[in-house]
Amino acid sequence: MSLTEILLRPLRSSSAKPLITHYDDAAGTRVELSVATVANWAAKTANWLVEEHDVEPGTPVAVQLPPHWQTAGVLLGAWWAGAHVTADPAGAAVTFVAPGASAPGTVAAVSLDPMGRDLGGPRDGAADFVGEARLFGDDYFGSPVDGSTPALAGLTVDEVLARVKGLDQGVRVLSTAEWTVPDGILRAFLAPLAAGGSVVQVTGADPARLDDRRRAEHTTLDILG
Q1: What three-state secondary structure class fits 93?
Q2: At CA 60, angle to CA 124 and CA 24, rounded to 5?
Q3: Which residues have CB under 8 Å from 146's CB, separation 6+?
Q4: Tens of pLDDT, residue by residue, the chain (225 residues)
Q5: Are 118 and 134 in contact, with CB atoms under 8 Å apart?
Q6: Is 0.90 surpassed by the pTM of this model?
């Protein structure tokens, strides 16, 4: 079973529950996505990777993105397809980047728009990921993924799961950490999900506003960058 299925299966019984809440303090935006919405984006990503880029279990996919709700969909979609997420574009079937960034090989630019708007088409040789992926299926029915399949920077599915244990069940995390590959993703993204919890991710955090975020979001644990 894929890493994404293992993480999301127990959560999908409460599909309306908030899973990822993203603040951008510099832009003044807040977006909250439920379990169902994140799963929908993950499925679209998995279908896009498999149908457009022939991704199968063990295929490297590079992710060079900041913490964001769209990044969550990319990561979970890649794992649902069985991809091996790395930071290195060398040999990757596709590399996900922020708008304006570049990488060798096949590149997908992720808009990172708070409301999910696309880029309006390919840009600088990179595919418009959001514009393309939204056309794909809302669920994913792909090949089985074995626990020995590489999932994150050389760690297998089973090894990732062993590394993300320990947080209290149902934890609601306030995070300002970067989602680096692999440590930041393990600590600030996967560990809360593995505990059946949720993440409030703050980009460009204003330290003076963090107490307000804690109170408003009812967070129970800080993971600070």
Answers
A1: coil
A2: 55
A3: 57, 157
A4: 999 999 999 998 889 999 999 999 999 999 999 999 999 999 999 999 999 999 999 999 999 999 999 999 999 999 999 999 999 999 999 999 999 999 999 999 999 999 899 999 999 999 999 999 999 999 999 989 999 999 999 999 999 999 999 999 999 999 999 999 999 999 999 999 999 999 999 999 999 999 999 999 999 999 998
A5: yes
A6: yes
